[in-house]
Specification:
Keywords: ATP-binding, Nucleotide-binding, Transport. The protein is of the alpha/beta class. The chain contains 8 helices and 10 strands. The chain has one domain (2-223): P-loop containing nucleotide triphosphate hydrolases (Rossmann fold, 3-Layer(aba) Sandwich), CATH 3.40.50.300. It has a 6-stranded mixed beta sheet with strand order 6-7-8-3-9-10, sandwiched between helices. The relative contact order is 0.18.
Length: 224
């Protein structure tokens, strides 16, 4: 479970999250809101990339402020732009990087890399330069690089924004089939209609918290 207790965060004098308290237990949760609503900051708090100015964020009982490394082992994060996440020259090296950093045995690294590349139809790119892949393939590579670490939760920050229709559908299907719990920040309202819960942020506060069938129309109505 991910829990926030009285969380506030500011950049200088500008507050972006204001006294948030919530528990996230559901398998699929969407975070919706306009630009500047605080949703990306909230997403980064869920795995300790950002710690709150005040308040507490815990993941399965681990405090992001004091147990950041352990939290990041439990919560994977997929960025909107895969180029931010892809750091090694070849596909195989990039997927295996996190495992190597955790000092996983070489034979186990090879097994897990092979498994995740097969799962996401990336095996044919195994020895190819990552930068030569298409945008959709890079997004799958970024996802594979997170999932090979076998986190308990995965946070996605606008995973379909840069994708064409075919690759959007592929990424949506990947998220649907994940065994892990997922929190997805998105503007893609159709994507989240089968999720378990949707949170709508406005000026750093949660203004709607409901199932998507209720939350999404209410969010659209607030947009005027």
């Amino acid at each position: 479970m991910i829990e926030l207790r009285a969380v506030t965060h500011a950049y200088g004098d500008r507050a972006v999250l204001r006294d948030l308290s919530l528990s996230i237990r559901e398998r699929r949760v969407a975070i919706l809101g306009g630009n500047g609503s605080g949703k990306s900051t909230l997403a980064r708090m869920l795995n300790g990339l950002i710690v709150p100015s005040s308040g507490v964020v815990t993941v399965d009982g681990l405090d992001t402020r004091t147990d950041g490394r352990a939290v990041r082992q439990r919560v994977g994060f997929v960025f909107q732009n895969p180029d931010v996440q892809i750091v090694y020259p070849t596909v195989e090296e990039d997927v295996g990087f996190g495992l190597k950093a955790r000092k996983v045995a070489k034979d186990e690294i090879a097994r897990r890399v092979t498994t995740v590349l097969d799962r996401y139809n990336l095996t044919r790119y195994r020895h190819q330069p990552a930068h030569q892949m298409s945008g959709g393939e890079k997004q799958l590579l970024a996802i594979a690089g997170v999932l090979v670490l076998e986190p308990a939760h995965v946070v996605f920050d606008e995973p379909t924004t840069l994708l064409d229709l075919r690759n959007r559908r592929t990424v949506i299907q990947v998220i649907r089939e994940l065994p892990q719990k997922a929190v997805v920040v998105t503007h893609d309202l159709d994507m989240v209609m089968d999720f378990d819960r949707a949170l709508v942020l406005e000026e750093g506060r949660i203004v709607i918290d409901d199932v998507p069938a209720v939350a999404v129309p209410a969010y659209v109505a607030r947009l005027g």
